[in-house]
Amino acid sequence: MKTTGKYSIKPYQCIRCGKEEEHGTNHWGEIYPFCSVCREYTVWTCLEEMPEGYEKPKTWNKVRLGDIANIT
């Protein structure tokens, strides 16, 4: 994911319980901090709209070494 290059505070929401709080990051998307309501580390999603020109990366494909190189 592209970054702003600058650290800033953005609003995030826990996807499990819905708690909202601000976290400092240099990107938009998901982070994985501790949630005091869920009592564990969970996924938080950014509530701030991603600026134009910044996009989420494509999902990675799993590959085996033999798929990308000849093993002899």
Describe the structure.
The chain is mostly beta strands and 72 residues long. It has a domain at 1-49. Helices cover 6% and strands 31% of the residues. It contains one helix and six strands, in the order ββββββα. The protein has one helix spanning 65-68; strands at 8-14, 20-25, 30-31, 34-35, 40-41, 44-46. Strand 1 (8-14) and strand 2 form a beta hairpin. The radius of gyration is 17 Å and the shape is extended.
Helix content: under 10%
The spatial strand order of the largest sheet comes to 2-1-6-3
Label the structural class: mainly beta
* Residue share in β-strands: 25-35%
**How would the global form be characterised?**
extended
Low-confidence stretches: none
Between the first and last Cα atoms, what is the distance in angstroms? 36 Å
Count of DSSP H/I helices = 1
Biggest β-sheet, characterized? 4 strands, antiparallel
Q: Over the alpha carbons, how many angstroms does the gyration radius reach?
A: 17 Å
DSSP, total strands = 6
Task: Write a concise synopsis of the structure shown.
The protein is mainly beta and 72 residues long. The chain is 6% helix and 31% strand.
Question: What keywords describe this structure?
Answer:
72 residues; extended; two-stranded antiparallel ribbon; mainly beta
